[in-house]
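Technical note accompanying the year-one report. For the benefit of new consortium partners, we illustrate the data format agreed upon in the data management plan: each record pairs a sequence with a structure-token string. No post-processing was applied to the example shown here.
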Amino acid sequence: MKIKSYFASTIAAAIEQARHELGPEAVIVESRRTTEAQRARGDYEVVVGLLAPGQEAPPREAVPEPDRLSEEVAEMRHQLEMMRKAISRNVLTAPRWSIANPDLAEVFATLVSEEVEGELARDIVDAVYARAAGGSPAVGLRTELERRFRVKPSLGRDGTGRRVAALVGPPGSGKTSTLVKLAISQGITGRRPVQLLSVDNYRVGGADQLRSYAAILGAGFQALETVGALAQALEEHRSKDLILIDTPGYGSRDLDNAADLARFLSGRPDIETHLVLTASMKSADLARVAGQFEIFHPANLLFTRLDETESLGSLFSLAARSGKPLSFLGTGQQIPEDLEPATRERVIECLLARERRTSRAA
């Protein structure tokens, strides 16, 4: 097997070099940003392999041991190890479009650089390739991205009359400030009666901030200590058009304490639960936290801190994998301005922004 690294300012340029030299039978082993020491050779490194006729990629146990006396053999072992890891992850194995269609290879690189999960990015580009038939990859990509996730920029379950929504999520995700923004934009601005309920008795003074906001806004407020008190309050305020429920920020070690509240919220068909997460979290962390909060059976995903990240790939990946619609997007700390209804256009524009910037620079 011939293994070689190609360096260039873009992944597409490196792939083109490889295609030129090794031909269409070459396969991508791995692509990555170069280290500081390699930066003079280019911004990206693409490792490409070329199998001899009839040769198969070596299994894990066939990866040769390093020869300390030969730098060349050691480098080959390193490259083979990278290929083994890529194959075992079943993410970066070279698809048909990787060399044959540099445009789609660049699309894949763009999605991965935007922190879209590798396997999901591969599935998306596979689908674009299958439908391309000579058409524009850019148009096909946008269509494929749109169909991968849903949006529902509203509060409350359909057909229930009044709107009741609860916000759940980890500490620091911005639940309380987001709840105030929703109270203003979805209730007070439209002159609808709003009731704010807090069951945040987990931290000292947890409800004080919301109490202060309610006084400023002229909204009803009630601090509750038990699930039974929450049920009673919902009955007492059944005439209110909009009821918003603030909950404690549960860390991973605290979720056992959330069992009663989770059972209550998930068992009430009139309450729509939104899982509040920060867009700046990595995909793996988002998936882990979302899995932990699945005990609440949240119907929607609400993301905050879009202003703290340049990439929405993690947000997109979770929405696509979970099937839960995006409801609202928090874009900063200003109340109520920095909250907007989630739209497919907004998410896709952010995902593809870097690709457009790279194209203009080229």
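Partners are asked to follow this layout when depositing records. Residues 58-69, 86-92, 357-362 have pLDDT under 50 and may be disordered.
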